[in-house]
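Most newcomers find our protein records easier to grasp once they have seen one. A learned vocabulary of local backbone shapes supplies the integers on the structure line. An example says more than a description, so a record of this kind follows:
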Amino acid sequence: MTQGAGQGPEVRTATLRDFRVPAYVYEGVRETGIQAAERGDQAAEQEQSAPAPAAGRGPGPAQGQFHAGHAPHAPEAPSGAPGAVPPRVPVQPGPGRHAHAPNQLGHPMAAQAPAVPPEAMSAPAHPGAAGGLPDGYTPTERDLPVINRGDTVQVEVREMPEPPPAPSTDELGPLYVVGDVHGYLDELVGALQAEGLIDADLTWCAGNTRLWFLGDFTDRGPDGIGVIDLVMRLSAEAAAAGGYCKALMGNHELLLIGAKRFGDTPVNSGAGTATFQAAWLLNGGQKTDMERLEDHHLQWMARLDAIEEADGHLLVHSDTTAYLDYGDSIEEVNDTIREALTRNDADEYWDLFRKFTKRFAFRDDSGPAAVRELLDVYGGSRIVHGHSPIPYLLGEVGSEYDGDDDGRPVIEGPHVYADGLAIAMDGGVTMAGKLLVCQLPLAN
């Protein structure tokens, strides 16, 4: 019958014969010839008097296996001392072996068997050395196979390919610069499209071209925030295409951040008490820009660099030597100004704005010397700047364009001056001039 048909499996109660002790339990226990002979006689008598196994009971122990009450065969006594019992010597437990393991296992003869010195002991046979492993034998640590290196799965180690080398200067795309924009988004879009830098969808299409804005994105024009949004988006698109679109901080970025951060807080100026809010409105601040100004715009402007060098051109916003007040290297100047913007000190912030509002340092007879001073400190062979409109540098107009067509300045391109060491890029878009986007170096 099978289980599930009303009867369960046959159940048998284990007897002493079923609890077999492997031979390795008796390691360290050695007997003399007399003791082995005496127990051999006792074992023979027990075998003769033992009843036959009952029907249904499993077979007796196989040859080479042991009952719980039987001792293993011991080696013969050493020659030259027949029948002599050596003095009892305490057995020191070996590594990984407890001194009283036989007693704990309940072997009846373990406590009576005297130990012999280690040098007189012979190595016991491995339980599985002959005839296979006994029934119920569980491998111990000493019996587990040793796994060699060749037995394990070998994973092929491949050398990592070397990273591609950084692009050389010959692989860099062409370099372009953009003058002051001042919120004139439509004019900016037209100028970028004319140079093939963006397409009809206002998306970057110039590949690895490098583009630098020289600052002053807002104020005076109608959509300064729209200009910032476009430049931020083009920065991401150009980087994805292998080029870049970067920007410098102009004095109008400092003014807009100051107006947002400090508002009507009085500050000390050279002409007395002033506020950022009043200065921002006086210099063409647009209320629509302030209403649309968000935190990410402020954070982006506050992280802009003030000075950079590209292909031998020292790029700055203002035509002033005030950069020398903030460090002896490009990195130091940028770090110093960026740290000043984080201190939230209205007077310090105003002083920074005031210094970068100065202009015309390169225009007069001392102009070439001022340019060389900056080039000697920061490097480069020419300065490229915005800030001062070209009509101002040429002395053609003394104020911004008032709408009279006869007073419209005629700007054909960048203005090179100061013995050829300075390039002005503000085409006077706020006075109906031209928003300049030009490739460097200049063709002439």
